[in-house]
Amino acid sequence: xETHEFKNVEPFGLMIDLTTGQMPGATNHLVRRASDMKxxxxxAAALDRLIAAGDPVHYEVFxxxxxxxxxxxxxxISKLLPGLVGEEFWxxxxxxxxxxxxxxxxxxxxxxxxxxxxxxxxxxxxxxxERGRMIYVPPHxxxxxxxxxxxxxxxxxxxxAHAGHNYGDIVTEGFPQRVFRxxxxxxxx
Length: 189
Ligand code: S6P
Ligand code: ZN
Prior knowledge:
Number of domains: 1
Bound molecules: D-sorbitol-6-phosphate, zinc ion
Oligomer: single chain
């Protein structure tokens, strides 16, 4: 019979640079480039041009992981670089949590933008992100961050360690709202 053994860790602490998000000792480093974002932007041709022009890093996630089990809290730094694909601001793919009944807290440390959230009944919400602003992503809400500024959008994220990522309908359906720069202005459409 399979047994479920809870893994614990010793108490620990670490320093986090509260502006850059730098977290020395982070052992997991996820990098997503423009080429990882196919299917996500309104202007696919503009994304192809960006990929051909050097395929820049779009965003990075730094983690110092704990066991991915109910009871632990996973935490990470998410760093989304500034840029445009056509008229659309750079963004993360966005995801639901695999264990849907799990929430997440984002504390923005640097930059500005939005957290776009959607529920599968069609509801959508755009919460502004700026240094010092906390965003609560409730259970069941898919979430994507969007950088509308000129510096990296850096957040400290905390969520149940067993939550997992479910990219589900994000590539096919996207989010009901996108954020563009048109005539020098930010437009949510
Ligand atoms: C995890 C949390 C973040 C994102 C990261 C990348 O639950 O929400 O760490 O994973 O911002 O976004 P994505 O949508 O590519 O996983
Ligand atoms: Zn999440």
